[in-house]
Amino acid sequence: MPKINHNLIRRNAEKLLRETLADTPVAVIQGARQTGKSTLIEMVSRDLNIKYISLDDPAALTVAKSDPVGFCNQYSEGTLAIDELQLCPELLRAVKLSVDQNRRPAQFILTGSADLLHVSGANESLAGRAETIKIWPFSRGELEGYEDSFVTKLMKGDVDVFLKSAIPCDRSKYADYTSIGGYPEVINRDQRRRNAFFRNYANGIMDHDAIEISGLAHLDKLGALWALISAQTSGELNVLDISAKAQIPKSSLHAYLRLLQDLYLIHELPAWGKNLSNRVIGKKKISINDTGLACYFNGLDQEALHDVMNGEIFGPILESYILSELVKQQTWSDIEYSLFHFRNRDKKEVDIVIELRDGRIIGIEVKAAKSVSQKDFQGMKALRDLAGNRFICGIVLYSGEEVFPYGSDMFLAPLSAIWAK
User: Where is 340: in which H helix or E strand?
Assistant: First the structure.
């Protein structure tokens, strides 16, 4: 794959950050470590008056903890950007006081490598004063140099025409994309150096970040839980099974899962439709948020993933990749949506259900194969029957290249449709 200068890649969230700074006192940028939060601030600072301070600097952290109000009032003539705020959550109260005294836009940019609402010691939400922008590893569209927004583009045109605009990928490309993932630091590395990054990244999260933001006991169990989720990514949460394997009591498991979510490392996918029918199974599914990390935890390098493309393990990893692309696109999509999965008691399933704010839905089924059969549409039919007129369309994504209609409201399309221009 060609070399990419990740510092020059435009983030699709940049437009939203600029809009936020134009009318909102505080912009909060949140995402996992090493996803490009600081680089995004640098992009907007080229033509805005921003002073940047990182709390990773021990001296800055000491001052922030000793005098939060003075620290927050040090740059009244522009925008004060405070990086890694989760290290000093008491600053949130000082930010709130400053904003309440002066409601001008663009007073602060706050970044966090954890969800600031759930960090131990954070007692202020900044509700009504801030807008949160989530930053994830690079999306496929960002790496290709355009704004990928599947839901917006699907809803603004003819579905069939939009799907046919997708540029099909060679099947092996899907293995490349999933094995590398989207962390900026790995996109140009060879396999050995990618493994080094993922190893040190995971160790740093477990040894430092998790400890800094959480009061949980036995955090040594967290790494095993993270690896287990990677091994069964896109699977339904079996509390008893995962508690036993991770050696975490069932009563405590939710808190550990919440911590992984707060660190932006996993994504929980609720069941759709459980309030519509008692035939819907309500278990949530859990996916790791970057498939490069998932492959690392599973001992799958790029070449090995090519070897198992026809095996059982590739399908769940590919499903996680497609889900992660839709999660990333939520940040900049013009159309708001939520993500679910569907399964009924007859074992009819749909991998991803996209629900718009008005309640209408789009079904997405992910197949690693180059060909599909009528059986692959059975879950979509069950979803359509339950949703009724709320059902917009159902799309079975596969590693083939053609688009085919299946009736009036279902389609077969390449996986690359998710990041079509």
Answer: strand 337-343
